[in-house]
Amino acid sequence: MKKHLFPLFLLVLGANVQAQQDFFAIAGKDTSSIVFNDFRAMDAVSGVSGEKLFSADTAAKVFSQDRKNIVSEDKNSYSHSQAVTMAALAYDPSNNDLVYMPMFSSNIYVLNAKTKEITLVENTVAKVTSCDINSHITRMTTGYDGHIYALNNAGTQLLQISRKGSQYTVSDLGIIKDDTSNGKNSFTAIETGFGGDMIADAENNFYVFSASGNVFKVAAKELKAKFLGRISGIPENYSVNGSAVNAKGKVIIASAKGGALYEVDLLTLQARALPGGEKPHIYDLASRYFANDRTSSVNALANIDIYPTRVDEHFINVNVNDKAVKGNLKLSVFDISGKNVMEQNLSVKEGSLNQQVYFKNLINGAYIVSITDQSGKVILNKKIIVTE
């Protein structure tokens, strides 16, 4: 997204009042090996754990997308929804879903954080072999285009997981190779590039944080990884196993070995420890935010929203429940290049509005919905994905 576009989106970045509702972690037991314990919400400001959403001991209800029925899983295998070796997680805010993959498995699981129901996507595209650590999926994130992306240890397989309605499909995008400038800091070498996690930015690039603390920028179109540097300000033996962007646009990292969570400036790669005293074992992190995204700031008003954010029925709902909002509002839709592709006027009566807005001639892709009040002040910015 070009730097000079969207001047109306230059809102003041503030504390994320919904931090524990859209920042998630795969947490492990207090052991030296990887043993999955639970999915939990995290506070991305303090680094303190919130609600435990689903654990290794929770009774799992798993629905197979392919077989279209409830399935019974072999809990003695590495390939089930509560496997001990979890290390890849992404958050899909359009349906409040946690998308994840066990390391020794090609299966994809989608956990609805509200209902606790799990969808099994039996994936035949990934080439995961239990005895080959290169093939294990350890990095996952939601891209700015709304798709989920997953990457194996060696970068030899970048998967795109797409949803249309309730159905998921998987595509293999290819092999990620080292940029010629990387030198000894190879993206494909176990000492410098393996493990860790990845995040996405607003231009649909990816940043891979290796377990060693090295950071690589991956251009999705070119499938090349460029070494950016090593994170400073973390302990020498700190293993970076989780990364996700917070509401301020900073990257939060966490370790499977246990330890403080750190906030990292993506420009300087300087880290500072979050103030919470917890030292959880974190195998992966996920959030709804993106690096370099000017729409990730907190909305000006808490009681105005649009939904759904993944639009597959050609309309969104606009809901206002705030007496401070009066008169006429303007809803504008921008594509990712900054072009205004649609406008509609809305009328609020006595601080209340619940209206459907239909989209016409919008092709599939990412858009920004902006709502301004009578004075022209932006009171909401939100990204949506049109899928039909």
From TrEMBL:
Signal peptide region: 1-19
Species in which this protein is naturally found: Chryseobacterium lathyri
InterPro entries: Secre_tail, WD40/YVTN_repeat-like_dom_sf
Pfam families on file: Por_Secre_tail
Domain Secretion system C-terminal sorting: 306-385
Protein name: Secretion system C-terminal sorting domain-containing protein
Coiled-coil ranges (or none): none
Keywords: Signal
Superkingdom of origin organism: Bacteria
The keyword Signal is assigned to this record: yes
